[in-house]
Design brief:
21% of the residues lie in helices and 35% in strands. By secondary structure, it is α+β, with helices and mostly antiparallel strands. A six-stranded mixed beta sheet has the order 8-9-10-11-16-15. The chain is globular. It binds [4Cu:2S] cluster (CUK) and dinuclear copper ion (CUA).
Length: 764
């Protein structure tokens, strides 16, 4: 312990004197040496230079990837391809305390289905909130295909705030897709099923099984989906697939494709040919066109009935009101993508080598003139292909998804079977370039590719299989995201990134400067509801409240202690520990884990989080902070004592491990005086510079001032005990005084470094 103190002090001194003198030692190795040793070509170097981001550098774009089966969202930077965060969405995520604190458990509980906790998701399509068709950087939505749900993530703190369960579907896929002002978020079903939770035999498939597309109303001010204002279009049991919202020319409409309009039901065990045979018989499937703008008016006018407690526009009503149309599309299509102007829609057929380009003006004409080639078995008007199609382009075998370039008419389509990306012109109908990617590409993503003004620049190919790309890690491989430079005429492959967390389907990327995430919460904040927590606790106001066997602990955390450090309850008590992080410093998160109780909180600066459990068994339960937050992090600890019913205390005095004398006290005080010298020199440096021009430094200084205040309190106590000749307590409090000094010095040094690195100026 004493050794440690001395070393820390010299470290602090060293930092004070040594910082700012950058190392001048330079590598003797030449670029050629490294190229030779690693077998790199000029092309490799060029690619490396385009993605390599020096230490401290930032990315131009932030990508939000579906986490596939993990039920999370993965955030990474482009072009560095560095993973920045996993966001817990449908699945508990202990690092963030997601699914462990009461506040986030309440979010996950919104996603219960038939009373059951569903603790994973098969996430497919993330979507940003939009304003006038541009990403506004406020919210992210994502769907869960397996359990038809949508989640809302607030990009102000990258936390999941809401989960909604579809009131009709038993799976979804065509979500999440936002309308141009995030009026609605689309979610289409995938596998047709009865709308009720009752048993309905498969023999009644055509009559009783249904698909659909839900338009979830989004309250842009509140940042929440509004189930009571949302509505669903009843659709035939055609296995709806992907969706996209119309924009500009097609604003007010939505598009949803389908892949089994044969309505085939397999069942090899009943002697029937399998699904895959029956679902790929016809040459075409159907693109569903829905008018959400008009539908919303009907809902507002009280003309739509509720089923399962939610607005349902039946097929009959939709046809009667002119809200629903079908257009044939290529066999087993996958992906429907509206262009930035909203006047073309591209659909690819997995079992066709063409991408089909539809003309929205043509479709509109057909609708206006009532020009249909017939009706489907449910009475929905079908627009003839020739009355809707602009052109068909041979792009390669197994085309899936399309992304739009910054240049008009230019698009990139993922070619699954041929494992390549085809760059082509949909106005002229010609292929421009093709690039082999590693293997079996699914989605691809362009920068701000779903907005009305895509950026071009980079493309990421989301390859399904990574086979031989990386060091082997067993039979389950990561996915391979390949970064491609699309700024020139020819596509250039830059980098392979393994993504080892579920199978991401789609990714969206936004300009990094559109995001302004917070570094701390307002003090005592429930981050999941974005309101002041009723359990917020201020420094010095920590308390324990008991009502029968219900115990509420109102505590705080700050470097380096948890208050309270000892919690005493009785066997059988229901315990809730509410902890508020008093820190204001950036990145000073504290954790809270407890032996055998499934307790693990992440308490970011300002946050209040709650761990609740039943103290079932009498015993001793250590708890501690799980984030290495300070030099005395390991000492950030405590004990929950669960006493047997009717327990009578035996020992009355704590057994001290060490006895301290006046000499110990004097020694500690001497150390403290030296430390104060360090602090004073740092303070002198800071105050002699224009530190007030640096918000980061101002925050650090505020925090340091707090810590120094605590130091003064501890100093007073130490001196009081010393005056009474109680050197045991005097020495311990002097030690605590020093603890606060070290934290003050640490903050001060961080502030000083920041000033030095950011060109602060001396003030007279
Ligand atoms: S899907 Cu998986 S590659 Cu769910 Cu958009 Cu196409
Ligand atoms: Cu707080 Cu470690």
């Amino acid at each position: 312990m004493k050794m440690f103190k001395t070393r820390t002090i010299s470290l602090l001194m060293g930092l004070t004197l040594g910082l700012g003198a950058a190392s001048s030692a330079y590598s003797q190795e030449s670029l050629e040496d490294v190229m030779k040793a690693r077998g790199l070509t000029q092309k490799d170097l060029l690619a490396a230079a385009k993605t390599y981001t020096p230490t401290g550098g930032r990315d131009e774009y932030m990508a939000f990837s579906s986490g596939g089966q993990s039920g999370h969202v993965i955030v990474y930077g482009i072009p560095s391809m560095r993973i920045l965060k996993y966001i817990g969405v449908f699945t508990p995520e202990p690092w963030q305390g997601y699914g462990f604190d009461d506040e986030s458990k309440a979010v996950l509980a919104q996603g219960r289905i038939m009373g059951k906790d569903i603790v994973y998701g098969d996430t497919h399509h993330p979507a940003f909130s939009e304003k006038d068709g541009e990403y506004d950087g406020r919210y992210l939505f994502i769907n869960d295909k397996a359990n038809p749900r949508l989640a809302v993530i607030d990009l102000h703190d990258f936390e999941t705030k809401q989960i909604v369960v579809n009131p009709f579907f038993k799976s979804d896929h065509g979500g999440a897709f936002a309308t141009p002002n995030t009026e609605y978020v689309m979610e289409a079903s995938q596998y047709a099923a009865p709308y009720s939770s009752d048993f309905v035999p498969l023999e009644e498939f055509n009559d009783k099984y249904r698909g659909g597309v839900t338009y979830w109303k989004f309250d842009n001010k509140e940042g929440r989906l509004k189930p009571e204002e949302s509505f669903t279009f009843e659709l035939p049991p055609y296995s709806q697939d992907l969706s996209d919202a119309g924009k500009n020319a097609s604003y007010g409409w939505g598009f949803t494709n389908s892949f089994c309009s044969e309505r085939y039901v397999g069942g090899i065990e009943r002697g029937r040919p399998p699904f895959e045979a029956g679902c790929s018989q016809k040459d075409t499937d159907f693109l569903h066109i829905t008018n959400w703008k008009k539908a919303a008016e009907l809902v507002a006018a009280g003309k739509v009935n509720k089923v399962n407690g939610s607005y349902l526009i039946t097929m009959d009503q939709a046809v009667k009101e002119g809200l629903l149309y079908l257009v044939p599309e290529p066999k087993s299509p996958h992906g429907v993508d509206v262009n930035p102007k909203g006047d073309h829609i591209i659909v690819s057929g997995k079992l066709d080598s063409h991408a089909w380009v539809y003309s929205w003006p043509k479709i509109q004409d057909a609708i206006k003139n009532g020009k249909f080639e017939g009706k489907d078995p449910y009475g929905i008007p079908i627009i003839a292909l020739k009355d809707a199609l602009h052109t068909q382009v041979q792009v390669g075998l197994g085309p899936l998804h399309t992304q739009y370039d910054a240049k008009e008419c230019v698009v990139y389509t993922s070619i699954y079977v041929d494992s390549m990306v085809t760059k082509w012109d949909y106005c002229e109908g010609k292929v421009l370039d093709q690039l082999n990617i590693h293997y079996n590409i699914g989605h691809l993503l362009a920068m701000e590719g779903d907005s009305v003004t895509p950026d071009g620049k980079y493309l990421v190919s989301l390859n399904k299989l990574s086979i031989d790309r990386f060091n082997p890690v067993g039979p389950l491989h990561p996915q391979n995201h390949q970064l491609i430079d699309i700024s020139g005429d020819k596509m250039q492959l830059l980098y392979d990134m393994p993504l080892p967390l579920g199978e991401p389907h789609y990714v969206v990327a936004i300009k990094a400067d559109k995001l302004q995430p917070a570094v701390r919460y307002k003090s005592g904040w429930n981050s999941r509801t974005d309101t002041k927590s009723e359990y917020a606790t201020r420094a010095g106001r920590e308390k324990v409240e008991r009502d029968g066997n219900r115990v509420h602990v109102y505590g705080t955390v700050i470097r380096s202690h948890i208050t309270p450090e000892i919690i005493e309850v009785e066997e059988g008590d229901e315990v809730s520990i509410h902890l508020t992080n008093l820190e204001r410093a950036q990145d000073e998160v504290h954790g809270f884990a407890m032996y055998s109780q499934n307790v693990q909180l992440s308490i970011e600066p300002g946050k209040t989080a709650t761990a609740s459990f039943t103290a079932e068994k009498a015993g001793v339960y250590p708890y501690y902070c799980t984030e290495f937050c300070s030099a005395l992090h390991l000492e950030m600890q405590g004990y929950l004592l669960v006493k047997p019913k009717g327990y009578q205390a035996k020992a009355t005095e704590m057994q001290e491990g060490e006895q301290y004398t006046q000499a110990d006290y004097d020694k500690q005080v001497k150390t403290n005086v030296e430390t104060q010298g360090v602090i004073d020199s740092v303070v002198a440096f800071i105050t002699s510079h224009n530190y007030k021009d640096f918000p980061t430094v101002v925050a650090l200084v505020e925090d340091a001032t707090d810590q120094l205040g605590f130091a003064t309190e501890a100093k007073t106590k130490a001196e009081e005990y010393a005056a009474k000749g109680d050197y045991q307590n005097a020495t311990l409090w002097a030690g605590q005084w020093w603890q606060y000094q070290v934290k003050t010095a640490d903050l001060g040094l961080r502030a000083k470094t920041h000033l030095e690195e950011n060109g602060a100026k001396k003030v007279k």
